[in-house]
Every structure is written in C-alpha cells, then in structure tokens.
Amino acid sequence: MQGSARNLLREFEEGKLVPALAAHVGVRYRPDEEHGEIGAWRRSVPALLGLLCDCGLGDLQVILEYQLPYSPKRVDALLCGVHPETGLPAYVLVELKQWENAKVVGRGLVRYNKRKGQPVLHPAEQVRRYCLHLLGFVPALARTPSCVKGLAYLHNAHRGDDWQLDDFECDDYSRLYTADQLGDLATDLVTSLRAADDAADRLTRARRAPARALLIAAAGSVTARTDFVLLDEQQVAFEAVRGAVADAFGNGGGRKKVVLVRGGPGTGKSAIALNLYSAMARREVKVVHATGSKAMTETLRRSVFRENQRQGEDVFKYFNNFARARQNELDVVICDEAHRLRGQANVPERWRGRLRGQIHQLIDAAKVPVFLLDDHQVVRPGEIGSPRDVLEIAKAMDCQVVEVNLDGQFRCGGSPLFDQWVQRLLGLAEEAPVSWSDLVADTDDEYVVESVEAPHALEAWLRARTRDTKTDARIAAGFCWKWKPPVEKNGKLSLADDVRIGGWHRPWNAWPDVEVPDVPATSFWASDPKGFNQVGCIYTAQGFEYDWAGVIMGEDLVIRDGQWVAQHDHTEDPALKETTGKRFDRLVRNAYKVLLTRGMQGVCVYSADPETNDFLRKHTA
After folding, report:
1. Are the beta carbons of 487 and 494 closer than 8 angstroms?
2. Which own/partner pairs from 302-305 qualify as long-range (CB within 8 Å, at least 24 positions apart)?
3. Cα separation values, 443 from 9, 335, 433, 456, Å
4. Which one-letter DSSP state was computed for residue 166?
5. What DSSP line would sit under 556-617, residue for residue?
6. What is the mean pLDDT of residues 243-271?
7. In sequence order, what are the residues at sequence separation of 6 or more whose Cβ sits closer than 8 angstroms to the Cβ of residue 450?
8. What pTM was computed for the model?
9. Contact at 8 Å (CB) between 110 and 120?
10. How high is the pLDDT of residue 212?
11. Which of the 8 DSSP states describes residue 407?
C-alpha cells in the first residue's frame, strides 16, 4: 500500500488507513483491536509518518507493509525517493518497533519487553537481512547496492544505563534509532532522500529475479563460501545452533543440547541446514548433513561436489548411516527433512531395550544434533520424525532441547495465504475449504491457483507458462498407477506410459539405477529440465521446488458428498499397501499437501475422479 507520507498520515487520522492495511495483508480488521498487527499499525505508523512530515519529507513516497520478493516477510515501511545530491534512486527500509526495552541473549538475538519464549533477531540485523534479500532479488537494485539503506526505529525506547542494543556492528543497511535520537534520525533521512513522484512505482515495476530453487540456491552457499540470506526466525535457528556448539566446546562435558527446528513447507529448513553446514565447516567443526531422501542427497552431492562425488558422500549422508556411529564422534549432525526419520531395531548395545530408531542414533552420534522437520510431511508408515518423538527420546537421553519455530513460507511465491488454502482444501485445518479467489480478495497476493478439466489441459497450462521464459514446471501425481520397468523399443530402453487417463498418458519418473536415454535419473527428476516429460511422485518431489506445479490427484483421495474419502484399494504405493484406516487417510492427505506446495509461482490441479475435480474447480475459482 503506497502514497505520500502526508496523504497516508491524513488517511490514518481519518480512520481509513488501518482498515486498508488489514485488507492489504489479509488480516481481519477489528475496530477495537489493541494488540497484534492492528495495534502495532495504530501506534507505529503515525510515529513514522509524522516524523517524515515534520522534517520536510511529506511528499516522499512510502510503501507500507512491502512484501519482499519471493518471501512471506513484509517490511514495515519502504521509503522511496532519490538521493538529494546525485538524483539517483534511493530506498530506505524501515522496521518499526514498539519496544520499550530489550536484552541481548545471544549473538544477534534479543528479548524485548521482558517477553518469554523464543528470542528474536536484533532489529538492526533484521532490517540488514531484509536489505540483502531485496538486493538479491531485484537486479536493478543489485547493480547499485548503495541505493538501498536500512534502519530500525524503536519509537518507544530510550537509551538508559542498561541499554544493550548498541553492542552491534551497524552499517548502511542496519542503523538503529530510539525515541531520544529523533534529531539524528531526521538528519539521516533528509540527507538520504528527496521526494520523486515515480520512485515507488519504479520499484514495484522493476523486474524481479527469476524464482530460485531454494535447495540449489542454498547449496551454492557451500561451494561459494557465501551465505544464502536467512531472515528472521531462520537466522534465530541458525544462531541457536551456533550457541549450542559454543556451549558444547566450552562446558567440559555438560548436558548435551538438541536443537529442534519446526516449520512447514517452504519455511527455509533446507536453507538453514546448508548455511549451518557451510558456517560450521569454515570453522573446522566436524559436521555432516543427513537426510532420509535419496533425491535430495544425490542432488546435493552433484550440485556441491561436481568434480568429487566421493567427497560428497562424506558430507551428505543418510539417516541410516549412523547405526554404528561412536558416541559424539561428530561435533554437529544436521538432520534435514527429519520428519523422514524411521524407527528400527538396529541400535547400539548401551541403548538396547530402552530406545529404538534413528533419532537416538543421531543424538548419540554428535555433540550437537540438529533436527529440522515438518510433522505435516510424514508420508510413509515407518516415519517417526515428529516433534513429540524427538522430545521424548531427547528427554530419555537426558538432553536439553532448544526449540525454534519457523514462520511464513518462502515457497509458493512467499504467499502468506496459500498454505492456509491447501490445509483447508484437504481438511487438515479446522476451517472449511474456501475458494482461492474469496481467500485472497482485496489482498495483493499474486500466487496463481487454477484447475483444469482434463490432464492434457494441465500439461498445456504448464507449457504456456514456461514457453519463452526461464521458468520451469513439473507434473506430479498421487501414487495411483503402477510403476512399470522400462521397456525395450527398437533396440533401446524407454519408459512405459504408466499414468493413463483417457487418451492422455505419460511415464512415471525413471527407475532407480536404470539409465534410460534422454531421461534424468530418479533423484534428478525435479532438478533436470527433462523431468517435465515424466510424472513425478511424492518421493521425487518432496524437498524440492519448481516454478510451476501441476498436480494430478488419483482416486486414492476423492470427494464424496462433500467429504474427503481415502480409498486404500486405489493406491499403488508399496509403502502404503499395508496401511489402512485413519493412518492411511492422513498419510495420503500429507502427500497431496506436499505435492500442492512445490510451485514457486503457481499451481494447477486436476483429479482423475469427476466428482473430486468438480470440487477442485469450485475451490480454485
């Protein structure tokens, strides 16, 4: 939402601005609300707008609640103008805080107003990372990074004898001002900005960098030794691990810390994991990255260690590689996609009869075990990686648990509403399903959600969006068609057309360890452009993202009389054949939730069941 500081302040005084902001970001407006975002806008927005008008910047263009590209995070205010001396574009990102006091509790971490619970980023560090993220996704700004500045304004705080937040290395992206520094803040703004009518529009129209696959982009931080920019709770999780490592080296064998990071799809768990690996390795900490996903592990090995696959095997391991690990033989083990951990009987002698499974093996193997998980992504019967499982086993092993909850989601264009829509659609939330257009009405959400009447229309929809662009797309489906081995045609192998719906047919992704000409290996279906010619399943799609997602729902989950019904006799997933009842129902819904949340820019969905497809057509409208 944008306008001049003067006009926005007038709208606030007339009682129009706060309701408009609520509609803009998609939150319910309550006229008597004094807490949450509504209360924050009432107190913080006029403090900033009034300051701008008082120091002669009333005509300056201001964007309130600016959503960062490909991110759910919003900047409280983005000031848009030109530099007073050079006349070049100039932008200042502003984070507004109502804090009265704050205490430093770790490197770059603070607690404010004596609140308990998970700490937050130092506000100057928060806005610095927002600046770096903006520069990373808007090429026009990246060419002249000095045109962007950042500041945090704590308009209720005063520096006193116990003030701690100045113990921070600030730069042009991370200034910090309190209520007793209004003069300094005004001077900084006046010398940085001059009003220009088209400044805000120039930014909003600027080309954004193509959506990057989070996994591959983060993996680049390992090889380039540069950090993928973590925001807010992501950096809090990073610092929690770094603090646990420092304690492990300094406490002389004290109580072990287990770090548990919880977040939904697209919250950046893999980015955190790879940043952690990169940072720990640079400090010569003995660290490995582990998953239960062959596709993710092999993709990382290929992306990071192109010339030395054996070295990749030493760094990127599987959860089942730790059954015979010695106690604390590693400093850190980073368990990505930890919801895929499994229970098993092969455990070290000292724990036999007490604990079972991979969770305790990993805790036992490292001084600091880190688990990053989403309990809505459990899709196989034997997977036990839930927060409760980790907490119970850590407690039984007399470990201290540090928990961090991730917020927002960076997949799906950073849409704050799409994950909510998917959960409601699949009956995974208390609220009833809602049409996408109704959910995003009067918001600026740009994520694309559509459905089609036939599978060939789904493929055409995806091709239309990738044609003549640098974007990519994949079709994934529920595991409702048999996965047949390759067949020999004219002396060479080719994939069988497994997925057949009417006259449309496509093969599943390749079989493991079977080379088929012009077909990517199973593990690279999501990352190789040739994967578009096959249909992926939950096991090749989970953990990855692509620009446009096409999802085919099979008859393992259908709508009957307005309710979802899981049909066990329609699954061809070997892992689910022996699972029935509520457990089967939940695993199938989780699988479709994963498939629906792979697209960075949009999703198109189709069901092979006519009644279900009518339901989808209604709720994607």
Report:
1. yes
2. 302/524, 303/216, 303/219, 303/220, 303/223, 303/527, 304/219, 304/222, 304/223
3. 21, 37, 18, 32
4. T
5. TEEEETTEEEE-GGG---GGGTT--HHHHHHHHHHHHHHHHT-EEEEEEEEESSHHHHHHHH
6. 82
7. 461, 602, 603, 604, 605, 620
8. 0.68
9. yes
10. 47
11. -
